[in-house]
Every structure is written in structure tokens, then in C-alpha cells.
């Protein structure tokens, strides 16, 4: 991050490490990064365990947004959780909170999330990401916020502002980028136009 913080996933060995505990996410200043979460540890409030965290994004104050696959005792769920890790100002230890995970509902919807895009985080600690809730047909949500305070920015089939006859085709949302002031930039395909002009930047 611009504040000099780093975040990375590393393989582990020794000390009783097995294949289901062999990776961990570390973050902090380069002089002494600390453990954020280890493969096999329980996730906050989902009843599942972390698999290998990835798709990291760190802001200048050292807050880390990341996506992780999740695992039950018998099943692996790829790319099925978005989390934010916040450093303690005194100890430097990280607290991990769930932003969204498999089985959660998008704001105002009875659908349930299945998978997620890579997250983006800004200096204020807000996180942006895409959540997929469709099994057969695409049902994607572009969201911004913090744990317990998510807002839907765009959703499959919603009309483009100022053009009510042209819906968004949300099966091709790009990974969003979140600016310092909270503005979200993303690409999506659109309906009602020919194939050579069906992509737009928002």
C-alpha cells in the first residue's frame, strides 16, 4: 500500500504443518509483517474454514481486503468469501471480519451468494466487489461497503441511468476499482445493442 504496508500469501512447512494448513496470509510493515489468517482456521460466522486466501488488496493504513475459498469437512467452495483484516494500532495484530460469504443474501434480496470477484479497498476502508448469486442464469451484484453495511451499486438486468430501455447484462461485470472518494469504476456488457458495441465502462 501507499503507506508502506505489504500483504502476501506464503507456503509453510515444519512444525506439524499438513496440506490443509500449509498456507497463510501475512501483512504489515516490511520490517515485521504478522500473521493475518492461516489455511484451515475457522472463518468469522460462516461455520466453514479458510482454504488458501488470495486476491489481496491493501490500503495505506494496512487494512487488507481479500477473497478466500472456503472448506467444510468434506467440500471445497472456491472463491466463496470476502473478508477485511484490520490491524490493531497498538499491538499490530490483525482482526478478520466477514464482508460477505457464500449463503449470505445481497441487500434487499432473497438470493444467496455463491462466489465473488477479487475485492478492491480504498484508504477509508470501504470494499468493493462483485457477488454471483445465479446458479443457472447470471445474477450478479456489484457491492460497496463494510461488514454489515453493504450497498448495491449495480445488479443484473438493471437499466443504465438515463437509458431505461438498455439493461445491464451482468454476467460480464469486471472486478471493480474503488477510488479514494468512494466512486466505483467497472466494466459491464449491455443489452439492446449490437455485439460490437455491447461493452461499457461505468
What can you see in these coordinates?
With 202 residues, the chain is an all-beta fold. The protein has no helices and 18 strands. Strands 8, 9, 10, 11 and 12 form a five-stranded antiparallel beta sheet that branches. The radius of gyration is 18 Å and the shape is globular. It starts with 5 loop residues before the first strand and ends with a strand. The model has no long low-confidence stretch (mean pLDDT 87).
Beta-strand content estimate: over 45%
The best one-word shape is globular
Following the backbone from N to C, one meets helices and strands in this order, namely EEEEEEEEEEEEEEEEEE
DSSP summary: helix tally: 0
Q: In terms of structural class, how would the helical and strand content be classed?
A: mainly beta
Topology, element by element:
Elements: E1 6-11, E2 23-28, E3 34-38, E4 49-58, E5 64-71, E6 76-87, E7 94-101, E8 115-116, E9 120-121, E10 127-132, E11 140-146, E12 149-155, E13 159-160, E14 163-169, E15 177-178, E16 184-185, E17 187-190, E18 199-201
Antiparallel strand pairs: 1-2, 2-3, 4-5, 5-6, 6-7, 8-10, 9-10, 10-11, 11-12, 13-14, 14-17, 15-16, 17-18
Relevant terms:
202 residues, 18 strands, 5-stranded antiparallel beta sheet, 4-stranded antiparallel beta sheet, single chain, 0% helix, mainly beta
Q: How do you describe this structure in short?
A:
It is built from no helices and 18 strands. It has 202 residues and is mostly beta strands.
